[in-house]
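Researcher: First entry.
Model:
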Amino acid sequence: MASYVQNKIKELFCSKGISLSAAESCTGGQISHLLTGVAGASGYYLGSVTSYAISVKESVLGVDSEVIRRCGVVSSEVAIQMAEGVRRLTGSSYAVSTTGLAGPGGDDRNPEGTVWIGVAGPDSSRAVCKVFKGDRAQNIRHFADCALKELYGFVLEDIR
């Protein structure tokens, strides 16, 4: 069953004639799964890149290797470059991305349950960090749900 936000995203994107793509790392396709679970998603959702490997982030999405070296793969800079990269690649109006640590594992800088969510549109991009305290499966679902909420809020602000 689709969540409220998934239906609101579909309504917003279809009514405005705008499109969406996703770049997923730690969510492993969960965002795409949630979006395409709503009938009519093909009216606005173009597709995604599941860039689990750093090499795919760099070669497909165009994430700068120097940014990864300097900031780490779990960072605002990488989340933004992932969203901007998939937006460029697909030609979508907007894009959302995730990079993080679903678990197990983590460190002082990025504990288990950390996700950076990137959103990109025609005129701007931003990233937000969230930390969740679930097991791996719970964290992945939390990450994807939170990414959709961030995307929806970003687009609402952007089109006003």
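Researcher: Second entry.
Model:
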Amino acid sequence: MRPSLCSADTLLWIAARPSVRVVHLQDPVVEALGFDARSGYAEAYWLGILGPSALWALRRLSDGLARHPDGFVVELGHFARELGLGDGVGRHAPVVRAVARLVAFRMAEVRGDALAVRRSLPPLAGRHLARLPQHLAERHRAEMEAPSPCSTSGAAPRR
């Protein structure tokens, strides 16, 4: 895995750009075992981990990558307004913090002059499950243990 910027550096990197080139962060393992960033799984289980602004940012960026597989440019001020995060793009702006949170949770990473973003999210790790309310953790466990309707391996369906 490539080294990522520390959180302060990430905030500065994002805030220094009025626009950011977004590319796909490819991870064959996560793409095989994970869940689409726009899925119900992401909303049910990753929302409380990433936070609503970061998850919506991830969903929008993932959707952009679905439409533009070779990447696209996002104007941060416009993006912030689309997400309901005002129009500031300074270091402490909500949109900058949301994107930096994606980097902190390895849902995105800075690669040169681009922001590489995952389109698939991994299943929650144990440390994330511990942060969920008990009823969600139990539901998650049940869903992961349920046999897949598409296989006999016992693996849960990945959407």
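Model: Note on the second entry: Residues 151-158 have pLDDT under 50 and may be disordered.
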